[in-house]
Amino acid sequence: MGKARLVGIGMDYSATSKAALKWAIDNLIEEGDQIIIIHVASPKADPTNKQLFEDTGSPLIPLDEFREINVSKHYGLNPDKEVLNMLDTVSKVKKVTVVAKVYWGDAREKLCDAVEHLKLDTLVVGSRGLGVLKRVLLRSVSKYVVQNASCPVTVVKGSSLSCLSGICRK
C-alpha cells in the first residue's frame, strides 16, 4: 500500500456516473484513500446554501451528513440510494473516507476547478457516449476535462473503460 490518494469522482446520478463510481471502487480505490464525490449542480438551481458557496463550492460534506435528506436539499441535491450504498460499502470494506462537494455552474469548468482546489491525485468521470455531431454541439464534459485537468483523468463509458490522460491501475 502506497501513499493515500485523493480520488475525485464526478457524480450526476446518471448510469455512466454510477458506472464510473463502480469502476473506481473495483479498480482504483485502495485502503486509506479519500473519495471526494463531486456534484456540479445547474447554475440555475437556487438552494439555500448556494449564495454562500457559489464561487468556491460547498464545504466538504462527510458521507454521514450527506445521507441526511435535509443536508442534501440545502445543496439542491437528491442523493441516489444505490450510490449511497456503494459509498457506505467501500468506506467500510476498504477503510476509505468519503466526502461530497457541490459546485454550481458549467460542469466542465467546475470539475477542472475541483481538481485544482482539492489537489486531487486523480479524477474519474463517466461518459455519455455521444456521437461526433452531438459531441461537437453539446461540448463533451469528459473530453474537456481530459484536455484541461491537471491530474490524470479516467473516463468510464458504461461498463467499458478508457484511460485517456492517466494511469489506470488496480
From TrEMBL:
The protein in question is named Universal stress protein A-like protein isoform X1
Give all residue intervals belonging to the UspA domain.
7-157
| CDD domains per the UniProt record, alphabetical | USP_At3g01520-like
InterPro entries with a match to the protein in the record: Rossmann-like_a/b/a_fold, Universal_stress_UspA, UspA
Gene3D superfamilies tied to this protein: HUPs (3.40.50.620)
Write down the Pfam families for this protein, in alphabetical order.
Answer: Usp
